[in-house]
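Per-record layout

source: Paracoccus sediminis
name: 5'-nucleotidase
length: 230
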Amino acid sequence: MTSSTRRHHPSERAIAIRYQQCSAEVKALQRQCYALATLRLRAAVDANGTGRGLAILSDIDETILDNTAVMAHAMTLGEGLDGFETWKLWEREGTPHLLPGAADFFHLADRLGVTIFYVSDRFEENKLATIATLSRLGLPQVQADQVLLFGPPKAERRATVERNHQIVLQLGDTLHDFDGCFAGATLDIQHRLAEDHGHRFGADWIVFPNAAHGTWMEADLRPWAAPGAR
């Protein structure tokens, strides 16, 4: 590690959050994700002949909910997203809104008879607040046994769902939302695993953009060594 590759600029976090909150490109990507998810969902139901017995697993934050307001707030406090007390307060009292395309997609899944599981690392102690938020925003199938929050690893929560359902689609913004092999893996290993699982992206794994949070945030940059540069 060198100071040139691990230097933190004051505006670095602001750029990431501004892109996530303000750019039309992010909104376009989010719509694109839900459009693709809709195609995959319809195909899965058609192949099965019914939605019964099928399940969707979706992360919540930056996959269904836009939390960029609390990201900006935490940045002004110098906390980043690891300011747990601020995040817990947001879970209880925050006012996130739905990503574009989310409402239509989940209501379609509900009409098709597909079971929806909301799988998130939000705090279990705030489960009632999370359920209230999802309900306030009009999402379907928001009940305690279908909102699976932080406790067992996500891989275990997925396995619980698989006991009684065929998971046909997963939605998330970090790779460990999809498979336990990514959890705790170094970035180099994550890149290799992403190649190994490449056939699943856009098929039954739909990855949403999140420029403001992830295990990559402390990675060393690899600058161009320009000829003659000192």
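summary: The radius of gyration is 19 Å. The beta strands are 54-58, 65-66, 97-98, 115-119, 147-148, 166-172, 205-207.
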